[in-house]
Please model this.
Amino acid sequence: MYNKVFLIGNLVRDPELRYTPSGIPVAKFAIAVNRISKKSADEEKSAQDVDFINIVAWRRLAEVCGEFLKKGRPVAIEGRLQIRSYTGKDGQQRTMSEVVADNMQMLGRKPDSGEASGSHEFAHTEEGTGEIAPF
Model:
């Protein structure tokens, strides 16, 4: 079995950086990814939808995301899809999907200048701790 996800999108909000009780950094944020649906015979243009994908980063990658990523910036994320269940405050069982980031690459221009920056890549090589994120 192989669980690998590659996404390119724009940050929906600034990352939220927190720490687990044992001091491990964890960042949560979401990216908007465009999805173009095929046009039907009676449509002139293809329809475009947006998917909002939750991302979680751990350890040093979490700190880098918290420091450098800002709302609206384009980013590439490489990671794995994780589905987890939990009980909500109302007692209902809920299921949540998110991407646990292994690598992050900032795309586009530097925010402080008009010149192209190329891209900056940051990698997280350790697996998650199995701890529950404090969110």
